[in-house]
Design brief:
Methyltransferase, Cobalt-precorrin-4 Transmethylase, Domain 2; Heat Shock Protein 90; four-stranded mixed β-sheet; 16 strands
Length: about 375
């Protein structure tokens, strides 16, 4: 960073990636500042700059460099590799600490506290934010976590038994049934239902996971501000939600019937597998730590599938388009859907959707990440 870049950075003020520090009085404060950047999106600490943006400089720069290096290694767990540089400006020395976005998140201080950067400040991470950090590095999967308040009484054992017989070719009862449910991570070793277990086999899944539903609406026109002509909340087990959503879609997605010879032939506006794939992806890949339902919005000119959560890890919109993007946020949910024959392990779903929609409508599918939501938009062919 040169003098001009530093002045421009100071002029912009503190933000998600920039923090001013006049000095550090405690090592814990240094650790907090480093950890919050590493747990979020990386950034720079400008030491020797006051909260108002005045360059005050630092004294004993060599001692401070050694101190900060020691804190990043010994008081951050796991240790964080930082890069420090100094810059002399207006006869004062400013220390710039470059903190990368960590690849071993979440990080914590030696006292066991987790911090994240939020706007222009740092704060302790909430439970949900911590879970997302663990998920991002595949240290823990949210769908495999047991629900402490639940018990096996909350599981529909008859349905679970039938599911195992149908999709796993397994027949079991009593303790053997529970053992099989534990093996597929629907039940924990403590004999508590996991989140995936409740979503697939629960008597009342939304009692424990209220956001585990899909909110659907049909809007006559193209504007979301128009009041829905039809609106439904689809709840229950995953299989029920998917079936109900498909029925809802079939009401408003039309088919043409053309008679050739003696028999009519059906030409769907959008192929069934496209709608099913989009729905299943919404259930399989959403971030269940976000307290919001998935949404299905049917307009006159398009259908939108809103999936809570940003794209996981290395997945990008570009590699989704070409196929092969296959990073699992919810492996247990995905595996159970796989046993039902609703997903594959090759990550080609979006690519097949794009190709099919282009063929039937002549238009392009749109993929966007908007705030904390992934939106798949399927265009409709006006009739």
């Amino acid at each position: 960073m040169n003098e001009l870049e530093l002045k421009e950075r100071i002029l912009k003020g503190e933000d998600l990636h920039t923090e001013f520090k006049e000095s550090f009085s405690k090592n814990e404060d240094i650790a907090k500042s480093i950890i919050c950047f590493a747990n979020t999106d990386g950034g720079q600490l400008l030491v020797g700059v006051s909260d108002t943006g005045e360059i005050v400089g630092v004294k004993n720069i060599d001692e401070l460099l050694r101190r900060i290096d020691d804190v990043s290694y010994n008081r951050c767990e796991p240790p964080i590799t930082i890069v420090q540089e100094t810059l002399s400006i207006e006869n004062r020395t400013v220390l710039i600490i470059h903190v990368p976005k960590g690849d071993q998140r979440p990080y914590r201080t030696a006292s066991g506290l987790y911090y994240i950067r939020s706007a222009n400040r740092h704060r302790q991470a909430s439970r949900e934010e911590l879970l997302r950090l663990f998920q991002a590095t595949e240290s823990i999967y949210y769908d495999e976590i047991e629900i402490l308040r639940a018990s096996l009484k909350d599981v529909d054992m008859d349905y679970a038994k039938k599911f195992l017989e149908t999709y796993f070719n397994l027949k079991a009862e009593g303790k053997h049934l529970i053992r099989y449910l534990t093996n597929i991570k629907a039940v924990s070793n403590n004999e508590k239902p996991t989140r995936a277990g409740i979503l697939f086999f629960g008597e009342n899944p939304q009692y424990y996971i209220p956001n585990g539903r899909i909110s659907a609406a049909y809007i006559e026109g193209d504007d979301i501000s128009t009041s829905p002509a039809d609106k439904k909340n689809f709840e229950g087990r995953v299989s029920n939600i998917l079936e109900d959503c498909m029925r809802f879609l079939k009401v408003y997605v039309k088919e043409r019937h053309i008679i050739k010879g003696l028999e009519p032939e059906n030409y769907p506006e959008i192929e069934d597998f496209v709608l099913r794939e989009a729905l299943v992806n919404t259930v399989a890949h959403r971030d269940y730590t976000i307290s919001a339902p998935a949404r299905l919005l049917i307009f006159s000119n398009r259908i939108e599938f809103h999936t809570p959560g940003k794209l996981p890890n290395t997945v990008t919109i570009e590699n989704m388009k070409i196929g092969g993007a296959h990073v699992l946020r919810n492996p247990t949910i995905y595996n159970l859907l796989g046993k039902m024959g609703l997903v594959t392990d090759i990550g080609s779903g979006i690519k097949r959707i794009i190709e099919s929609v282009k063929k039937t409508t002549g238009k392009n599918v749109k993929l966007k990440v908007i705030h904390s939501e992934f939106v798949l938009t399927i265009p409709r062919k006006r009739r």
